[in-house]
Amino acid sequence: MEKWVVTAKRADFQAIGEKFHIDPVIARLIRNRDVTDESKIREYLTGTIEDLPSPWLMKDMRKAVDILKEKISAQAKIRIIGDYDIDGVTSTYVLLKGLTRIGGKVDTYIPDRVADGYGIHEHLINRAEEDGIDTIVTCDNGIAAAAEIDMARKKNMTVIVTDHHEIPYREINGTRQVLLPPANAILNPKQSDCDYPEKGLCGAVVAFKLIIALYEEYGISRKELEDYYELAAIATVGDVMDLQGENRILVKEGLRRLKDTENIGLRELIRANGLEDMKITSYHVGFVLGPCINASGRLDTAARSLALLNAKDREKAARLAGDLTALNQSRKALTEKGKEEAIQMVETTSLGQDRVLVIFLPDCHESIAGIIAGRIREKYHRPSIVLTRGETGIKGSGRSIEGYSMFEELVKCADLMTQFGGHPMAAGLSMEEKNVEEFRRRLNENCTLTEEDLRPKVIIDVPMPVSYITRELIEQISLLEPFGKGNTKPVFAQKGLRVLESRVFGKNRNVAKVKLMDPSGTVMDGVYFGEAEEFVRFIDGKDSISVTYYPEINIFRGRESIQIVIQNYC
């Protein structure tokens, strides 16, 4: 049963509204997102690229730039080693484009998810040595590869790490001991002694910061940096970073440019998904375009997505975009099958009593374990880890809930795994099959989540009567975009709404249209997407209902009207 909670953060909303020429409701929404002092509110409403911190604030930036200048001058061979997900592919492209622009002799290698696994491995170091590589630059990986980087250094290779994952550590007598790799330079804002103010960047933005610094060093026009904003946006949304501060500005700028992108591959991917005449939002990146870029790394090779971004002619780009879109359709079907199998296990075995769900699906394609874990987490509101049988043992991916740091909980079980890493909300791991049951037992034994923690919460921004909604208010709400993690779409609520009429329609009978009247007599159209027939059965015969909603302008046959999109009801 959901628990509806109203956010009760205080401020003088009237005064803020007057100062910034916004409705007090908008002022309240901004406060709810923990944007408080005047400079931050101004940045939130009108922030631009000019407000972003200097890349030189990042620890080791000067060191990394000096190394690369020297290597480029000597025409030393540089290899970028990326990752097979959306953040890894885009950060590889960012570094390749940027280093090539300043004259670097550069190639790339994106590990194969199945054959290579995540990040740098010994065989990749050996291959680099065979290929005469002088310098390795990692992106979206490397911070946890101490042994492999040590091996590269012993082979006289220079290594620069650009990463954004949590800094590895071990607990010794209750004290954390940080475990940094012996790289020549490490760019990762999560280092405790790094002065860069924004800690929640994705891998592609960390890589972009390096390119900004290099362009400044080489006197390249800032105008050329504009080509990177849409990639920063795609990676930030695709890797589910918080859309606050710098991230929000980058995503806003990137989305604005994406519709008219000069990147031929992105243009064809947009066309292949029928978005060329639409305003592209963070939703389209997170749920349409991003999954296509991810699909190649899941079911084929991420090199195909990198080839799309690098494509120079439209015909090749269109073919690659079509391939990625088709791969994503296959991925969706596999995900649905795996999700149903996982639900069956939770519903029919002792797993259902666990607070941390560890689900072993031996035949599931390892690339979709994380997506299935996310779907199971959404359904049961519990930390969920899906394990599968890979070529070299058990591999898995986890997704968490607020209040449960998956990375920190995995640290406590480090002896059961051969490799692991991640964030508080997501992690990847591998282990021997014999440890699966012990892993499940120990995670649940260590878990301190209460029943209340496991009850899904619906956070309401503003209890607001539908009679207050105006076109101007809806237009002001759009100032808060882009929406996503850390800057969620506002949630409004009203109780005591009478249902005047309702009907279900849509090819899959998954849309309900209703006409509602609030206590003041205001009549408002509403729409509900999902289990529409169940929704209509619930509201039938009820004197009144309570709903959470989001207001929007509905355009139908050229006519515009205000309606609410109903999200929850009781």
Automatic annotation (TrEMBL):
The entry's family comment says: Belongs to the RecJ family.
Q: Where is the DHHA1 domain?
A: 354-446
Q: Which UniProt keywords apply?
A: Exonuclease, Hydrolase, Nuclease
The record's Pfam families line, in alphabetical order, gives: DHH, DHHA1, RecJ_OB
Q: Which residues form the RecJ OB domain?
A: 460-567
Q: Which gene encodes it?
A: recJ
The protein's organism comes out as: Blautia luti DSM 14534 = JCM 17040
User: Keyword Hydrolase, does the record have it?
Assistant: yes
Any one Gene Ontology biological process term? DNA recombination
What residue stretches are annotated with the DDH domain?
77-236
Superkingdom in the source lineage: Bacteria
What is the name attached to this protein's record? Single-stranded-DNA-specific exonuclease RecJ
Recall the GO molecular function terms of this protein's record: 5'-3' exonuclease activity; nucleic acid binding
Please indicate if the UniProt record lists Hydrolase as a keyword. Answer: yes
InterPro entries according to UniProt: DDH_dom, DHH_sf, DHHA1_dom, RecJ, RecJ_OB, SSDNA_exonuclease_RecJ
